[in-house]
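Annotators were shown the component list below and the corresponding predicted structure, then asked to write short factual statements about the assembly.
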Amino acid sequence: MSSELIFQPITALAAKLAAKQISAVELTEAVIARRRAVDGRVRAFTAFNDADARAQAAASDSRRAAGQSLGLLDGIPVGLKDVIAVKDQPLTASSKMLANFVSPYDATATVRLKAAGAVLYGRLNCDEFAMGSSTENSAFHPTANPWDLTRVPGGSSGGSAAALAAGELIATLGSDTGGSIRQPAALCGVVGLKPTYGLISRYGLVAYASSLDQMGPLTRTVEDAGIVLGAIAGHDERDSTSYPAEIPNYQAELAKRRGPWKLGIPKEYFGEGLDPEIGAAMERAIAFYTQQGCEIREVSLPHTQYCLDTYYIIATAEASSNLARFDGIRYGHRSKQAKDVVDIYFQSRAEGFGAEVKRRIILGTYVLSSGYYDAYYVRAQKVRTLIRQDFLNAYQDVDALITPTSPIPAFKLGEKSDPLAMYLCDIYTIGVNLAGLPAISVPCGFTSSNLPIGLQLIGQPFQEANLLAIAATYERAHDWGARHPQL
Amino acid sequence: MSAPADLNIDRVAKLARIALTPEEKATFSQQLGQVLHHIEQLSKLDVSGVEPSAHAFAVHNVWQNDVARPGLPVDQALRNAPAQRDNMIAVPKVVE
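Structure shown to annotators:
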Protein backbone atom coordinates (compact mmCIF):
# COMPACT_ATOMS: atom_id res chain seq x y z
CA MET A 1 0.00 0.00 0.00
CA SER A 2 2.63 2.52 1.03
CA SER A 3 4.80 1.95 -2.06
CA GLU A 4 1.71 2.72 -4.14
CA LEU A 5 0.96 5.92 -2.23
CA ILE A 6 4.39 7.51 -2.52
CA PHE A 7 4.42 7.65 -6.31
CA GLN A 8 0.93 9.11 -6.68
CA PRO A 9 0.24 12.73 -7.62
CA ILE A 10 -1.37 15.23 -5.26
CA THR A 11 -4.66 14.99 -7.15
CA ALA A 12 -5.02 11.24 -6.53
CA LEU A 13 -3.92 11.44 -2.90
CA ALA A 14 -6.22 14.39 -2.20
CA ALA A 15 -9.13 12.33 -3.51
CA LYS A 16 -8.18 9.40 -1.24
CA LEU A 17 -7.85 11.74 1.73
CA ALA A 18 -11.20 13.36 0.97
CA ALA A 19 -12.87 9.94 0.67
CA LYS A 20 -11.19 8.94 3.96
CA GLN A 21 -9.57 5.93 2.23
CA ILE A 22 -6.29 7.06 3.75
CA SER A 23 -5.34 9.45 6.52
CA ALA A 24 -2.71 12.19 6.41
CA VAL A 25 -0.85 10.32 9.16
CA GLU A 26 -0.73 7.16 7.02
CA LEU A 27 0.54 9.15 4.05
CA THR A 28 3.20 10.88 6.14
CA GLU A 29 4.26 7.52 7.62
CA ALA A 30 4.64 6.15 4.09
CA VAL A 31 6.88 9.08 3.17
CA ILE A 32 8.96 8.72 6.35
CA ALA A 33 9.36 4.97 5.74
CA ARG A 34 10.49 5.65 2.19
CA ARG A 35 13.06 8.21 3.31
CA ARG A 36 14.39 5.68 5.84
CA ALA A 37 14.61 3.00 3.18
CA VAL A 38 16.31 4.96 0.39
CA ASP A 39 17.81 8.25 1.54
CA GLY A 40 21.00 6.62 2.77
CA ARG A 41 21.72 6.12 -0.95
CA VAL A 42 19.96 9.14 -2.51
CA ARG A 43 20.97 11.63 0.21
CA ALA A 44 18.41 14.24 -0.86
CA PHE A 45 17.76 15.54 2.70
CA THR A 46 19.99 17.81 4.76
CA ALA A 47 17.64 17.62 7.76
CA PHE A 48 14.24 16.21 8.76
CA ASN A 49 11.99 16.01 11.80
CA ASP A 50 9.73 12.94 11.74
CA ALA A 51 7.88 13.84 14.95
CA ASP A 52 7.07 17.33 13.69
CA ALA A 53 5.75 15.91 10.39
CA ARG A 54 3.58 13.40 12.27
CA ALA A 55 2.14 16.21 14.40
CA GLN A 56 1.32 18.29 11.31
CA ALA A 57 -0.34 15.24 9.71
CA ALA A 58 -2.37 14.54 12.84
CA ALA A 59 -3.55 18.15 12.87
CA SER A 60 -4.60 17.76 9.24
CA ASP A 61 -6.61 14.63 10.06
CA SER A 62 -8.31 16.46 12.96
CA ARG A 63 -9.29 19.32 10.64
CA ARG A 64 -10.72 16.88 8.14
CA ALA A 65 -12.62 14.96 10.81
CA ALA A 66 -14.14 18.28 11.92
CA GLY A 67 -15.15 19.06 8.33
CA GLN A 68 -12.65 21.89 8.10
CA SER A 69 -10.26 20.60 5.44
CA LEU A 70 -8.16 23.37 3.87
CA GLY A 71 -8.25 21.92 0.36
CA LEU A 72 -6.20 19.73 -1.97
CA LEU A 73 -2.87 20.26 -0.20
CA ASP A 74 -4.23 19.55 3.27
CA GLY A 75 -2.22 16.58 4.57
CA ILE A 76 0.14 16.34 1.57
CA PRO A 77 3.86 15.99 2.51
CA VAL A 78 5.85 18.75 0.79
CA GLY A 79 9.61 19.27 1.12
CA LEU A 80 11.45 22.55 0.74
CA LYS A 81 14.87 23.25 -0.73
CA ASP A 82 17.19 24.32 2.06
CA VAL A 83 17.11 27.96 0.93
CA ILE A 84 13.44 28.56 1.86
CA ALA A 85 12.76 29.65 5.44
CA VAL A 86 10.49 27.66 7.77
CA LYS A 87 10.27 29.10 11.28
CA ASP A 88 12.19 27.02 13.85
CA GLN A 89 13.66 24.73 11.18
CA PRO A 90 17.30 24.71 10.00
CA LEU A 91 18.12 26.94 7.02
CA THR A 92 21.61 26.14 5.76
CA ALA A 93 21.65 26.91 2.01
CA SER A 94 23.82 23.75 2.07
CA SER A 95 26.66 25.97 3.32
CA LYS A 96 29.03 25.66 6.24
CA MET A 97 28.35 29.39 6.69
CA LEU A 98 24.78 28.63 7.85
CA ALA A 99 25.34 25.11 9.21
CA ASN A 100 23.78 26.03 12.59
CA PHE A 101 21.27 28.64 11.44
CA VAL A 102 17.63 28.20 12.52
CA SER A 103 14.99 30.36 10.80
CA PRO A 104 13.39 32.96 13.05
CA TYR A 105 10.51 33.40 10.58
CA ASP A 106 8.59 31.79 7.68
CA ALA A 107 9.03 32.62 4.00
CA THR A 108 5.81 33.92 2.42
CA ALA A 109 5.57 30.70 0.37
CA THR A 110 5.90 28.75 3.63
CA VAL A 111 3.11 30.77 5.27
CA ARG A 112 0.89 29.99 2.30
CA LEU A 113 1.72 26.26 2.24
CA LYS A 114 0.95 26.08 5.95
CA ALA A 115 -2.34 27.90 5.36
CA ALA A 116 -3.15 25.27 2.71
CA GLY A 117 -2.52 22.49 5.25
CA ALA A 118 0.58 20.98 3.64
CA VAL A 119 2.76 18.80 5.88
CA LEU A 120 6.18 20.46 5.61
CA TYR A 121 8.73 17.68 5.85
CA GLY A 122 12.49 17.88 5.43
CA ARG A 123 15.15 20.27 4.27
CA LEU A 124 16.41 19.38 0.81
CA ASN A 125 20.01 19.45 -0.34
CA CYS A 126 21.26 21.84 -3.01
CA ASP A 127 24.38 23.41 -4.39
CA GLU A 128 25.75 25.85 -1.80
CA PHE A 129 23.71 29.08 -1.96
CA ALA A 130 22.01 27.59 -5.05
CA MET A 131 25.19 28.02 -7.09
CA GLY A 132 25.73 25.01 -9.31
CA SER A 133 24.17 22.51 -11.70
CA SER A 134 24.85 19.17 -10.00
CA THR A 135 24.30 19.54 -6.19
CA GLU A 136 27.96 18.52 -5.80
CA ASN A 137 28.67 21.99 -4.36
CA SER A 138 26.71 21.20 -1.18
CA ALA A 139 28.98 21.65 1.83
CA PHE A 140 27.42 18.56 3.42
CA HIS A 141 27.26 15.80 0.81
CA PRO A 142 26.38 15.30 -2.85
CA THR A 143 22.93 13.93 -3.77
CA ALA A 144 22.64 10.97 -6.14
CA ASN A 145 20.30 10.64 -9.11
CA PRO A 146 17.69 7.96 -8.18
CA TRP A 147 17.78 6.63 -11.76
CA ASP A 148 21.52 5.92 -11.53
CA LEU A 149 23.19 6.44 -8.17
CA THR A 150 26.57 7.07 -9.83
CA ARG A 151 25.14 10.17 -11.53
CA VAL A 152 24.19 13.67 -10.41
CA PRO A 153 20.54 14.73 -9.95
CA GLY A 154 21.29 18.11 -11.55
CA GLY A 155 21.19 21.32 -9.59
CA SER A 156 21.00 23.47 -7.84
CA SER A 157 17.63 22.07 -6.58
CA GLY A 158 19.01 18.52 -6.84
CA GLY A 159 17.63 17.36 -3.47
CA SER A 160 14.14 18.63 -4.39
CA ALA A 161 14.18 16.69 -7.69
CA ALA A 162 15.84 13.53 -6.35
CA ALA A 163 13.59 13.24 -3.27
CA LEU A 164 10.52 13.49 -5.47
CA ALA A 165 11.80 11.02 -8.09
CA ALA A 166 12.73 8.56 -5.32
CA GLY A 167 9.24 8.71 -3.77
CA GLU A 168 10.47 10.41 -0.59
CA LEU A 169 8.00 13.31 -0.94
CA ILE A 170 4.81 14.06 -2.86
CA ALA A 171 5.84 17.55 -4.01
CA THR A 172 8.79 19.87 -3.38
CA LEU A 173 9.78 23.48 -3.80
CA GLY A 174 12.99 24.60 -5.45
CA SER A 175 14.45 27.88 -6.59
CA ASP A 176 15.58 28.77 -10.09
CA THR A 177 18.12 31.50 -10.89
CA GLY A 178 19.51 30.03 -14.13
CA GLY A 179 17.69 26.71 -14.47
CA SER A 180 17.95 25.30 -10.95
CA ILE A 181 14.39 23.90 -10.89
CA ARG A 182 14.06 22.85 -14.52
CA GLN A 183 17.43 21.16 -15.10
CA PRO A 184 17.25 18.83 -12.05
CA ALA A 185 13.58 18.12 -12.88
CA ALA A 186 14.69 17.04 -16.38
CA LEU A 187 17.59 14.94 -15.08
CA CYS A 188 15.37 13.19 -12.49
CA GLY A 189 12.25 12.71 -14.66
CA VAL A 190 9.80 14.98 -12.82
CA VAL A 191 7.90 18.18 -13.63
CA GLY A 192 9.61 21.48 -12.65
CA LEU A 193 8.06 24.92 -13.03
CA LYS A 194 9.89 28.24 -12.90
CA PRO A 195 7.17 30.92 -12.77
CA THR A 196 7.35 34.45 -14.17
CA TYR A 197 9.64 36.72 -12.15
CA GLY A 198 7.48 38.43 -9.52
CA LEU A 199 4.69 35.83 -9.39
CA ILE A 200 5.94 34.21 -6.16
CA SER A 201 7.26 36.34 -3.33
CA ARG A 202 10.99 35.98 -2.67
CA TYR A 203 10.52 36.92 1.00
CA GLY A 204 12.25 34.22 3.02
CA LEU A 205 14.24 32.85 0.07
CA VAL A 206 18.02 32.99 0.65
CA ALA A 207 19.15 35.53 -1.95
CA TYR A 208 21.57 34.52 -4.69
CA ALA A 209 20.86 36.87 -7.63
CA SER A 210 17.79 38.88 -6.73
CA SER A 211 16.79 40.00 -10.23
CA LEU A 212 16.80 36.38 -11.44
CA ASP A 213 15.77 34.27 -8.41
CA GLN A 214 12.31 32.72 -8.42
CA MET A 215 10.83 29.85 -6.38
CA GLY A 216 8.70 27.16 -7.94
CA PRO A 217 7.23 23.67 -7.55
CA LEU A 218 8.60 20.26 -8.55
CA THR A 219 5.82 17.70 -8.87
CA ARG A 220 4.83 14.39 -10.49
CA THR A 221 2.33 15.99 -12.87
CA VAL A 222 1.65 19.30 -14.57
CA GLU A 223 -1.69 19.56 -12.78
CA ASP A 224 0.08 19.18 -9.43
CA ALA A 225 2.46 21.99 -10.40
CA GLY A 226 -0.59 24.18 -11.00
CA ILE A 227 -2.04 23.26 -7.61
CA VAL A 228 1.15 24.13 -5.71
CA LEU A 229 1.67 27.29 -7.78
CA GLY A 230 -1.87 28.43 -7.05
CA ALA A 231 -1.25 27.97 -3.33
CA ILE A 232 1.97 30.01 -3.14
CA ALA A 233 1.64 32.63 -5.92
CA GLY A 234 0.33 36.13 -5.49
CA HIS A 235 1.28 39.60 -4.39
CA ASP A 236 3.24 40.13 -1.19
CA GLU A 237 4.13 43.56 0.12
CA ARG A 238 7.23 42.08 1.78
CA ASP A 239 8.86 41.66 -1.66
CA SER A 240 9.02 44.95 -3.57
CA THR A 241 9.44 43.03 -6.86
CA SER A 242 6.30 40.98 -6.21
CA TYR A 243 3.79 41.53 -9.01
CA PRO A 244 0.08 42.16 -8.27
CA ALA A 245 -1.10 39.51 -10.74
CA GLU A 246 -4.53 37.92 -10.69
CA ILE A 247 -4.04 34.27 -9.67
CA PRO A 248 -6.45 32.01 -11.55
CA ASN A 249 -7.45 28.47 -10.56
CA TYR A 250 -4.69 26.82 -12.61
CA GLN A 251 -6.23 23.36 -12.28
CA ALA A 252 -9.52 24.54 -13.78
CA GLU A 253 -7.75 26.58 -16.46
CA LEU A 254 -5.58 23.76 -17.70
CA ALA A 255 -8.58 21.46 -17.95
CA LYS A 256 -10.40 24.11 -20.00
CA ARG A 257 -7.66 25.24 -22.36
CA ARG A 258 -7.20 22.66 -25.11
CA GLY A 259 -5.46 24.67 -27.83
CA PRO A 260 -4.44 24.39 -30.55
CA TRP A 261 -1.48 26.70 -30.01
CA LYS A 262 1.18 28.27 -32.12
CA LEU A 263 4.51 26.93 -30.90
CA GLY A 264 7.95 28.25 -31.78
CA ILE A 265 11.14 26.25 -32.23
CA PRO A 266 14.11 28.55 -31.51
CA LYS A 267 16.71 27.33 -33.98
CA GLU A 268 19.59 28.46 -31.73
CA TYR A 269 18.55 25.85 -29.14
CA PHE A 270 19.08 22.87 -31.42
CA GLY A 271 22.69 23.33 -32.45
CA GLU A 272 26.07 22.00 -31.45
CA GLY A 273 26.38 20.27 -28.08
CA LEU A 274 22.86 18.80 -27.98
CA ASP A 275 22.88 15.08 -27.12
CA PRO A 276 21.46 13.20 -30.18
CA GLU A 277 19.03 11.13 -28.08
CA ILE A 278 17.64 14.33 -26.52
CA GLY A 279 17.41 15.85 -30.00
CA ALA A 280 15.42 12.83 -31.20
CA ALA A 281 13.07 13.06 -28.19
CA MET A 282 12.48 16.75 -29.05
CA GLU A 283 11.58 15.82 -32.63
CA ARG A 284 9.04 13.29 -31.36
CA ALA A 285 7.52 15.87 -29.01
CA ILE A 286 7.29 18.45 -31.78
CA ALA A 287 5.66 15.85 -34.06
CA PHE A 288 3.12 15.15 -31.30
CA TYR A 289 2.12 18.82 -31.07
CA THR A 290 1.80 18.94 -34.87
CA GLN A 291 -0.59 15.96 -34.73
CA GLN A 292 -2.61 17.86 -32.13
CA GLY A 293 -3.20 20.59 -34.68
CA CYS A 294 -0.66 23.03 -33.27
CA GLU A 295 1.08 25.29 -35.73
CA ILE A 296 4.85 24.87 -35.41
CA ARG A 297 7.10 27.70 -36.54
CA GLU A 298 10.84 28.09 -36.51
CA VAL A 299 11.80 31.28 -34.69
CA SER A 300 15.10 32.96 -33.95
CA LEU A 301 16.45 34.29 -30.65
CA PRO A 302 19.54 35.88 -32.17
CA HIS A 303 21.27 36.83 -28.92
CA THR A 304 21.16 33.30 -27.47
CA GLN A 305 24.94 32.90 -27.77
CA TYR A 306 25.37 35.81 -25.34
CA CYS A 307 23.06 34.46 -22.61
CA LEU A 308 25.70 32.49 -20.70
CA ASP A 309 28.15 35.38 -20.45
CA THR A 310 25.43 37.89 -19.59
CA TYR A 311 24.16 35.57 -16.89
CA TYR A 312 27.56 35.00 -15.29
CA ILE A 313 28.20 38.73 -15.09
CA ILE A 314 24.78 39.71 -13.70
CA ALA A 315 24.32 36.71 -11.40
CA THR A 316 27.79 36.92 -9.87
CA ALA A 317 27.56 40.71 -9.46
CA GLU A 318 24.29 40.36 -7.56
CA ALA A 319 25.68 37.42 -5.58
CA SER A 320 28.75 39.38 -4.49
CA SER A 321 26.44 42.07 -3.18
CA ASN A 322 23.88 39.72 -1.57
CA LEU A 323 26.49 37.53 0.12
CA ALA A 324 28.29 40.53 1.61
CA ARG A 325 25.85 40.12 4.53
CA PHE A 326 27.75 37.01 5.65
CA ASP A 327 30.33 38.80 7.74
CA GLY A 328 30.50 36.53 10.79
CA ILE A 329 29.09 39.25 13.05
CA ARG A 330 25.31 38.95 13.38
CA TYR A 331 24.67 35.36 12.32
CA GLY A 332 26.38 32.55 10.46
CA HIS A 333 29.85 31.14 10.90
CA ARG A 334 32.36 33.22 12.91
CA SER A 335 36.01 32.23 12.64
CA LYS A 336 37.90 31.54 15.84
CA GLN A 337 41.19 32.41 14.09
CA ALA A 338 40.40 36.09 13.55
CA LYS A 339 42.84 38.61 15.05
CA ASP A 340 40.42 41.55 15.15
CA VAL A 341 36.99 42.66 13.99
CA VAL A 342 37.96 43.25 10.35
CA ASP A 343 39.77 39.93 10.27
CA ILE A 344 36.50 38.26 11.33
CA TYR A 345 35.15 39.14 7.87
CA PHE A 346 38.13 37.73 5.99
CA GLN A 347 38.52 34.54 8.02
CA SER A 348 34.83 33.75 8.52
CA ARG A 349 34.17 34.06 4.79
CA ALA A 350 37.29 32.02 3.99
CA GLU A 351 36.14 29.22 6.31
CA GLY A 352 32.38 29.44 5.70
CA PHE A 353 32.17 29.53 1.89
CA GLY A 354 33.02 26.70 -0.51
CA ALA A 355 35.06 27.04 -3.70
CA GLU A 356 32.22 27.78 -6.15
CA VAL A 357 30.72 30.45 -3.91
CA LYS A 358 34.12 32.10 -3.49
CA ARG A 359 34.70 31.97 -7.26
CA ARG A 360 31.38 33.65 -7.97
CA ILE A 361 31.85 36.31 -5.29
CA ILE A 362 35.33 37.08 -6.69
CA LEU A 363 34.02 37.29 -10.27
CA GLY A 364 31.06 39.42 -9.20
CA THR A 365 33.27 41.73 -7.17
CA TYR A 366 35.58 42.10 -10.16
CA VAL A 367 32.85 42.99 -12.68
CA LEU A 368 31.47 45.60 -10.26
CA SER A 369 34.85 47.08 -9.33
CA SER A 370 35.95 50.55 -10.30
CA GLY A 371 37.20 50.63 -13.88
CA TYR A 372 35.36 47.46 -14.94
CA TYR A 373 31.76 48.28 -14.00
CA ASP A 374 30.79 49.78 -17.37
CA ALA A 375 32.73 47.29 -19.45
CA TYR A 376 31.19 44.25 -17.80
CA TYR A 377 28.16 44.96 -15.63
CA VAL A 378 26.44 47.77 -17.55
CA ARG A 379 27.22 46.10 -20.88
CA ALA A 380 25.68 42.83 -19.61
CA GLN A 381 22.56 44.71 -18.51
CA LYS A 382 22.25 46.14 -22.03
CA VAL A 383 22.64 42.70 -23.59
CA ARG A 384 19.96 41.54 -21.15
CA THR A 385 17.59 44.06 -22.77
CA LEU A 386 18.37 42.55 -26.19
CA ILE A 387 17.86 38.99 -24.94
CA ARG A 388 14.48 39.88 -23.48
CA GLN A 389 13.50 41.66 -26.68
CA ASP A 390 14.33 38.50 -28.66
CA PHE A 391 11.74 36.56 -26.67
CA LEU A 392 9.11 39.30 -26.90
CA ASN A 393 9.64 39.49 -30.66
CA ALA A 394 9.17 35.73 -30.95
CA TYR A 395 5.92 36.00 -28.95
CA GLN A 396 4.47 38.24 -31.65
CA ASP A 397 4.07 35.03 -33.68
CA VAL A 398 3.80 32.18 -31.18
CA ASP A 399 2.21 31.35 -27.81
CA ALA A 400 5.15 29.41 -26.39
CA LEU A 401 8.55 27.98 -27.29
CA ILE A 402 9.68 24.34 -27.27
CA THR A 403 13.31 23.52 -26.42
CA PRO A 404 15.28 20.83 -24.63
CA THR A 405 15.70 21.59 -20.90
CA SER A 406 19.28 20.32 -20.73
CA PRO A 407 21.71 19.61 -23.57
CA ILE A 408 22.80 16.39 -21.86
CA PRO A 409 21.25 13.74 -19.58
CA ALA A 410 22.48 13.19 -16.01
CA PHE A 411 26.27 13.04 -15.93
CA LYS A 412 28.57 11.13 -13.58
CA LEU A 413 29.34 12.46 -10.10
CA GLY A 414 32.75 14.15 -10.31
CA GLU A 415 32.70 14.23 -14.12
CA LYS A 416 32.66 18.01 -14.55
CA SER A 417 35.50 19.46 -12.49
CA ASP A 418 35.95 22.51 -14.72
CA PRO A 419 33.62 25.42 -13.78
CA LEU A 420 33.07 26.52 -17.37
CA ALA A 421 32.02 23.00 -18.44
CA MET A 422 29.51 23.00 -15.58
CA TYR A 423 28.18 26.45 -16.59
CA LEU A 424 27.43 25.11 -20.09
CA CYS A 425 24.79 22.75 -18.58
CA ASP A 426 22.53 25.80 -18.28
CA ILE A 427 22.63 27.09 -21.85
CA TYR A 428 18.95 26.35 -22.56
CA THR A 429 17.60 27.58 -19.24
CA ILE A 430 19.34 30.86 -18.38
CA GLY A 431 17.78 33.01 -21.13
CA VAL A 432 14.42 32.47 -19.42
CA ASN A 433 15.70 33.96 -16.14
CA LEU A 434 17.33 36.94 -17.86
CA ALA A 435 14.01 37.66 -19.59
CA GLY A 436 11.94 36.91 -16.45
CA LEU A 437 9.71 34.40 -18.26
CA PRO A 438 7.83 31.32 -17.02
CA ALA A 439 9.07 27.92 -18.17
CA ILE A 440 8.35 24.30 -17.33
CA SER A 441 10.29 21.07 -17.76
CA VAL A 442 8.15 18.01 -18.47
CA PRO A 443 9.39 14.40 -18.75
CA CYS A 444 9.55 13.43 -22.44
CA GLY A 445 11.35 10.10 -22.59
CA PHE A 446 14.45 8.19 -21.60
CA THR A 447 17.84 7.65 -23.16
CA SER A 448 19.03 4.17 -24.12
CA SER A 449 20.77 4.12 -20.70
CA ASN A 450 17.38 4.70 -18.99
CA LEU A 451 18.12 8.30 -18.00
CA PRO A 452 15.20 10.79 -18.06
CA ILE A 453 14.91 13.50 -20.72
CA GLY A 454 13.10 16.80 -20.16
CA LEU A 455 11.14 18.96 -22.59
CA GLN A 456 11.17 22.68 -21.82
CA LEU A 457 8.20 24.88 -22.71
CA ILE A 458 8.76 28.63 -22.33
CA GLY A 459 5.68 30.82 -21.96
CA GLN A 460 4.71 34.46 -22.12
CA PRO A 461 4.98 36.60 -18.98
CA PHE A 462 2.26 35.73 -16.41
CA GLN A 463 0.64 33.24 -18.83
CA GLU A 464 1.27 30.25 -16.56
CA ALA A 465 -2.24 28.92 -17.18
CA ASN A 466 -1.52 28.63 -20.91
CA LEU A 467 1.93 27.19 -20.28
CA LEU A 468 0.53 24.51 -17.96
CA ALA A 469 -2.23 23.69 -20.47
CA ILE A 470 0.30 23.24 -23.29
CA ALA A 471 2.44 21.02 -21.05
CA ALA A 472 -0.58 18.99 -19.86
CA THR A 473 -1.59 18.32 -23.48
CA TYR A 474 1.72 16.50 -23.97
CA GLU A 475 1.58 14.79 -20.59
CA ARG A 476 -1.94 13.38 -21.10
CA ALA A 477 -0.84 11.49 -24.20
CA HIS A 478 2.35 10.04 -22.71
CA ASP A 479 3.02 7.92 -19.66
CA TRP A 480 6.65 8.71 -18.84
CA GLY A 481 5.60 9.63 -15.32
CA ALA A 482 4.40 6.06 -14.72
CA ARG A 483 8.02 4.83 -14.61
CA HIS A 484 9.88 4.94 -11.33
CA PRO A 485 13.52 4.34 -10.49
CA GLN A 486 14.47 0.96 -9.01
CA LEU A 487 16.04 1.65 -5.64
CA MET B 1 36.76 45.56 -22.58
CA SER B 2 39.80 44.74 -20.50
CA ALA B 3 41.90 41.64 -20.97
CA PRO B 4 41.39 38.74 -18.52
CA ALA B 5 44.96 39.21 -17.30
CA ASP B 6 43.64 42.33 -15.55
CA LEU B 7 42.03 40.29 -12.79
CA ASN B 8 44.32 41.07 -9.87
CA ILE B 9 43.25 38.32 -7.51
CA ASP B 10 44.80 39.95 -4.42
CA ARG B 11 42.98 43.21 -5.01
CA VAL B 12 39.62 41.59 -5.78
CA ALA B 13 39.82 39.16 -2.85
CA LYS B 14 40.50 42.10 -0.56
CA LEU B 15 37.47 43.97 -1.95
CA ALA B 16 35.39 40.83 -1.41
CA ARG B 17 36.72 40.43 2.16
CA ILE B 18 37.76 36.81 1.64
CA ALA B 19 41.14 35.47 2.79
CA LEU B 20 42.38 33.15 0.03
CA THR B 21 45.17 30.60 0.33
CA PRO B 22 48.00 30.73 -2.24
CA GLU B 23 46.54 27.57 -3.83
CA GLU B 24 43.08 29.15 -4.12
CA LYS B 25 44.60 32.27 -5.67
CA ALA B 26 46.37 30.22 -8.33
CA THR B 27 43.35 28.03 -9.10
CA PHE B 28 40.78 30.84 -9.15
CA SER B 29 43.00 33.07 -11.31
CA GLN B 30 43.32 30.30 -13.88
CA GLN B 31 39.60 29.32 -13.80
CA LEU B 32 38.27 32.88 -13.80
CA GLY B 33 40.71 33.70 -16.61
CA GLN B 34 38.93 31.06 -18.69
CA VAL B 35 35.50 32.42 -17.76
CA LEU B 36 36.54 36.01 -18.53
CA HIS B 37 38.00 34.86 -21.83
CA HIS B 38 34.58 33.38 -22.69
CA ILE B 39 32.88 36.61 -21.58
CA GLU B 40 35.10 38.63 -23.94
CA GLN B 41 32.70 37.84 -26.80
CA LEU B 42 30.18 40.30 -25.29
CA SER B 43 32.52 43.12 -26.29
CA LYS B 44 31.91 42.29 -29.96
CA LEU B 45 28.22 43.11 -29.67
CA ASP B 46 27.03 46.61 -30.61
CA VAL B 47 24.98 47.87 -27.66
CA SER B 48 24.95 51.56 -28.56
CA GLY B 49 21.57 53.09 -27.86
CA VAL B 50 20.38 50.06 -25.83
CA GLU B 51 18.96 50.76 -22.37
CA PRO B 52 20.33 48.56 -19.57
CA SER B 53 17.81 46.30 -17.76
CA ALA B 54 18.27 45.86 -14.02
CA HIS B 55 15.16 43.67 -13.95
CA ALA B 56 13.17 41.79 -16.55
CA PHE B 57 10.20 44.00 -15.71
CA ALA B 58 10.40 47.72 -15.10
CA VAL B 59 10.37 48.22 -11.34
CA HIS B 60 9.01 51.48 -10.01
CA ASN B 61 9.14 52.78 -6.49
CA VAL B 62 6.96 50.60 -4.33
CA TRP B 63 5.60 52.29 -1.25
CA GLN B 64 4.28 50.75 1.91
CA ASN B 65 2.05 52.46 4.39
CA ASP B 66 4.06 53.99 7.21
CA VAL B 67 2.55 51.81 9.90
CA ALA B 68 4.42 50.39 12.88
CA ARG B 69 4.42 46.60 12.96
CA PRO B 70 5.97 44.21 15.46
CA GLY B 71 9.49 43.11 14.55
CA LEU B 72 11.35 40.01 15.68
CA PRO B 73 11.51 39.63 19.46
CA VAL B 74 15.04 40.11 20.81
CA ASP B 75 15.57 36.45 21.65
CA GLN B 76 14.55 35.48 18.10
CA ALA B 77 16.71 38.15 16.50
CA LEU B 78 19.70 37.00 18.52
CA ARG B 79 19.20 33.25 18.33
CA ASN B 80 21.69 32.89 15.47
CA ALA B 81 24.28 35.35 16.77
CA PRO B 82 27.74 33.75 17.08
CA ALA B 83 28.35 35.60 20.38
CA GLN B 84 26.02 37.68 22.54
CA ARG B 85 25.98 39.46 25.88
CA ASP B 86 23.25 41.49 27.62
CA ASN B 87 20.85 41.25 24.64
CA MET B 88 23.54 42.48 22.24
CA ILE B 89 25.78 40.87 19.62
CA ALA B 90 29.33 40.65 21.00
CA VAL B 91 32.46 41.31 18.92
CA PRO B 92 36.15 41.73 19.83
CA LYS B 93 37.14 45.14 21.17
CA VAL B 94 37.28 47.72 18.35
CA VAL B 95 38.74 50.74 20.21
CA GLU B 96 41.60 50.40 22.70
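Statements collected:
1. Chain B touches chain A through 52 residues (CB under 8 Å).
2. The mean pLDDT of chain B is 89.
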